[in-house]
């Protein structure tokens, strides 16, 4: 009896948690039959739970309740799948389908969680309209708005990893400890550094950005530390302040620190330890009040082992490490970044470009080897180069569109209105080509497509225009 009572209490608690979730929770069995939905599902689809439970997820998609359906993809891949859907009521949602397996390795249930992106986008549109109204107000407010948009809102942090980093930034900004930001090229290391500086007590002082890999080795010492008059031929008569002095009271951002020459690393270490520098050709110590933030896309610990980077300098820089993960591992951020950059470049180029659902899903599921920078550059290119208001799959670079086509086995891509016969022919051609490229045999094509071998043979000849069919 006690066990039964405990079970009832746990079940009631679980029911409360599910029903209290602001995100949709939609559960099916391994065959796609709907087992459970929460009140958010009812609001999202504008349909009662009793009219959803017992229905098949695929049939609901065919009836137009939502599109596309994740169920067949999860069924085949047997892994978690994320995608953007549109509902019959016109809402855009980010859906994650997570399969749960039984002891035999078969899918027992699939738990779908969805977040409505429509309200976020509508809120962003309202903010944009408000900003346009504020443009006519005094310049001080306009300057404040530009500062907030540029220095703080650029930090998109919806994924769990980036939310952790966002909280770290808030803490780090309050102290002057040295920070080392690591991550692949294009992940947004500079944005993190900018946020730390502009949230700190040094925000009214300079943030000086130095790319250590972009300055020739022969010049980097004088750029950082400055020089005294007459130090070398061609030097300014009055000498020159270095970037350490220019950043006094503020932050010096040493980007690509792994590129700094070994001989200069000694001088940098001394400056960090003593909070003072000597100009090139000088003997006088100059006190500096500078916060150092370094960044690199290299493995500095490996470089230390190989003798390419000083161990003592590494530990001096690595007081507070921040590692920014690549974009492909934080999929939750992609849709928000797409919206952010689309709005940014629509505003910049006075455009009203939008993305089709196919394009959103293609971008959402792309690996992004160039990370956030690649996404930003692509969005600018699409806004500038598009001839139509809505970006279609054909407008994307081939490596992205082809990747999406290969990965979207259950979707038919139609770029324009066509007759039903044309659509049927297009689907038939895709099926025949995919099957033949995979199996290289008309017998096997007939078997997997459920047609006889002679029919498969004729259609392969028709669509592949080849005589050498097995």
Topology:
Layout: H1 2-20, E1 24-29, E2 34-37, H2 39-45, H3 57-62, E3 66-67, H4 71-77, E4 81-87, E5 92-101, E6 107-116, H5 118-134, H6 139-151, H7 160-172, E7 179-182, H8 189-198, E8 207-211, H9 217-225, H10 243-246, E9 251-255, H11 262-274, E10 276-277, E11 286-287, E12 291-296, H12 300-305, H13 311-317, E13 320-323, H14 332-348, E14 354-355, H15 357-364, H16 371-385, E15 390-391, H17 398-407, H18 420-439, H19 442-449, H20 453-464
Parallel strand pairs: 7-12, 7-13, 8-9, 9-12, 14-15
Antiparallel strand pairs: 1-2, 1-6, 3-4, 4-5, 5-6, 10-11
InterPro entries: AAA+_ATPase, AAA_lid_NorR, Homeodomain-like_sf, HTH_TyrR, P-loop_NTPase, PAS, PAS-assoc_C, PAS-like_dom_sf
Protein name: HTH-type transcriptional regulatory protein TyrR
GO molecular function: ATP binding; DNA binding
Note the overall shape.
elongated
Widest β-sheet, arrangement of strands: 2-1-6-5-4-3
- What is the CATH architecture annotation of the largest domain? 3-Layer(aba) Sandwich
What does the main sheet amount to? 6 strands, antiparallel
CATH class of the largest domain reads Alpha Beta
InterPro entries: AAA+_ATPase, AAA_lid_NorR, Homeodomain-like_sf, HTH_TyrR, P-loop_NTPase, PAS, PAS-assoc_C, PAS-like_dom_sf
Organism: Neobacillus mesonae
Domain Sigma-54 factor interaction: 155-384
Domain PAC: 77-129
């Amino acid at each position: 009896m006690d066990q039964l009572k405990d079970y009832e209490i746990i079940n009631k608690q679980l029911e409360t948690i599910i029903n209290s979730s602001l995100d949709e929770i939609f559960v099916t069995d391994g065959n796609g039959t709907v087992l459970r939905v929460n009140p958010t599902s009812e609001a999202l689809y504008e349909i009662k739970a009793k009219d959803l439970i017992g229905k098949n997820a695929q049939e609901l998609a065919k009836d137009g309740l939502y599109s596309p359906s994740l169920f067949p993809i999860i069924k085949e891949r047997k892994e978690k799948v994320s995608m953007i859907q549109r509902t019959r009521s016109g809402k855009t949602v980010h859906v994650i389908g997570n399969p749960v397996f039984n002891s035999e390795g078969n899918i027992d249930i699939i738990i779908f969680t969805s977040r409505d992106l429509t309200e976020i986008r509508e809120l962003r549109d309202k903010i944009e309209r408000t900003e346009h109204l504020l443009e006519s107000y005094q310049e001080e407010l306009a300057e404040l708005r530009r500062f907030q948009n540029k220095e703080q809102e650029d930090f998109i942090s919806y994924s769990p990893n980036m939310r952790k980093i966002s909280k770290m930034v808030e803490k780090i900004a309050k102290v002057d400890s040295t920070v080392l930001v690591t991550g692949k090229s294009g992940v947004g290391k500079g944005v993190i550094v900018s946020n730390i500086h502009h949230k700190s007590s040094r925000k009214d002082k300079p943030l000086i950005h130095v790319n250590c890999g972009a300055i020739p080795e022969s010049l980097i010492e004088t750029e950082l530390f400055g020089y005294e008059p007459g130090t070398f031929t061609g030097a300014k008569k009055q000498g020159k302040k270095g970037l350490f002095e220019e950043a006094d009271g503020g932050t010096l951002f040493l980007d690509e620190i792994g590129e700094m020459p070994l001989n200069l690393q000694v001088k940098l270490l001394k400056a960090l330890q003593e909070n003072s520098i000597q100009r090139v050709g000088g003997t006088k110590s100059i006190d500096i009040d500078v916060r150092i933030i370094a960044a690199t896309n290299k493995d500095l610990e490996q470089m230390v082992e190989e003798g390419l980077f000083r161990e003592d300098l590494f530990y001096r820089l690595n007081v507070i490490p921040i590692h920014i993960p690549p974009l492909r591992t934080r999929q939750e951020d992609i849709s928000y970044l797409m919206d952010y950059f689309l709005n940014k470049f629509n505003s910049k180029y006075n455009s009203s470009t939008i993305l089709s659902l196919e394009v959103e899903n293609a971008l959402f599921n792309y690996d992004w080897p160039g990370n956030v920078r690649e996404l930003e550059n692509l969005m600018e290119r699409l806004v500038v180069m598009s001839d139509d208001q809505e970006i279609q799959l054909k407008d994307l670079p081939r490596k992205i569109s082809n990747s999406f086509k290969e990965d979207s086995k259950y979707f038919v891509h139609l770029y324009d209105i066509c007759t039903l016969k044309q659509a049927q022919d297009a689907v038939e051609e895709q099926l025949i080509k995919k099957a033949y490229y995979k199996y290289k045999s008309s017998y096997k094509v007939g078997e997997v497509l459920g047609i006889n071998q002679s029919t498969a043979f004729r259609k392969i000849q028709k669509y592949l225009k080849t005589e050498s069919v097995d």
